[in-house]
Amino acid sequence: MYSFSEKSKQRMSGVRKELRDIADLAIQISIIDFGIPEYGGRRFLEEQERLFKAGLSKADGINNRSEHQSGNALDFYAYVDGKASWDEGHLALVACAFYEAAARLGYLIQWGGLWKSFKDMPHVTFKGEY
Hints:
By secondary structure, the protein is α+β, with helices and mostly antiparallel strands. The chain has helices spanning 6-11, 17-29, 45-53, 88-105; strands at residues 33-35, 73-75, 77-80, 83-85, 107-111, 123-129. The chain has 4 helices and 6 strands; from the N terminus they run ααβαβββαββ.
């Protein structure tokens, strides 16, 4: 059983409670460890603009707002062999834990790895309740 580091917990500050609850359960049931990267939680406009200009986000923060700006999204990384992993297989396993946790809690989420326009493997968005 895994648990979040203090740094990952801090990075979820400002994220809606339901999504934090999903993440808290997901890390407990996941078969692979994971964490929340810098800017993986709620983002302020300046942070979103900086990520957009660096090519790290498709959302500019103004005309195309990110779900991170409203606290409705989380990014994650897998933690394998003592270091962060962005391997698609690892990220898919973490996403499975998010889906399982959301289902147990009665919530709907969307994983960026299933998007048709582009794949955002380390991303989940809160979509509501059943």
